[in-house]
Each structure stands twice: as C-alpha cells, then as structure tokens.
Amino acid sequence: MIATFRTHLPDAAATEAAGRALARGLAGGMLVTLSGELGAGKTTLARGVLRGLGWEGPVKSPSYTLLEHYPLSSLYLYHFDFYRFADPQEWETVGAAEAFTPRSVGLVEWPERVAGFLPPADLEVHLLPATGGDGRTLELAATTTAGERCVSEIRKALAAP
What we know:
Elements: E1 3-9, H1 12-23, E2 31-35, H2 42-52, E3 67-71, E4 76-81, H3 90-94, E5 104-109, E6 123-129, E7 136-142, H4 145-159
Parallel strand pairs: 2-5, 2-6, 4-5
Antiparallel strand pairs: 1-7, 3-4, 6-7
Helix pairs in contact: 1-2, 1-4
C-alpha cells in the first residue's frame, strides 16, 4: 500500500462529498473498487464521483444492468456492479475487460465476485457500518500513485472548513 486513510462519514451527503473529492484525483486508466455490504453507500459514493466529474444526469445503481456507462468530456466512466455474478467466469461472457482502457475509469462494486479477472485496483474503497452509531466508516487503500492522488484529495476536502 502506498497510502491509507480512514474516516467517519455521518450521512449520505458526506458520502457523496467524499466521492466528489475522490473525483478530483481520477485520471484515465484508473480502477477504483468499492466494497461493502448492501446499502453501505457504494452507489452514493459513485454518484458523488460522477457529480465531481460534471455529470448532471441521473446516477443509478447498476445492480440489474451490470454496467452504467457515463461518457464525460475528459474520459469514459464505467460503473460496474458484480453483485449478481454467481461465477467469476461470467466476466469473460459479458466482455467486461474491454471497458478498461487508458481513457476510461472503472468504478467496480463487489470486486470480490470477479476475483482473478479484475485488473489491479489503483484505489480500494471500503464502506463499513459505523461502530456504535450512525453513518459509515470510509477506508481507503491506494496501491498506486494515481490512487494516492485520490486519497490526498479526500484528505484535503475533509480537512477544509
């Protein structure tokens, strides 16, 4: 790991704000994995990322469609949700690997469902229920300098008044 960070997010608005901050560090070719239980806030964080990149349209969970594609002016963002995968081999059937290019960013929910097929993540995001209270705990682990930029942006945003 190059950088790690852990913080409390009290509500959905704070989770979306963390996503907006994360967006400032994104660049083409990056992969961000989003892990957490159902309802942990993965799609809320993804919505914040998209808002931070200038997307004004609706942002929905790709749970039923597997993939939502957002063509932005500077890059393509692919938001995957592999929750419904029963077998990691389905990765090859759906052609998911084609979405990971130098001009795209991949946000992947439930990355453990495609273990062994997914390229290495630049940033691993874990959303966990807060200990003894409301909200959630955000844990970040950057594995590349690109992922480290995202961690830095979230730290700066949360430190700002």
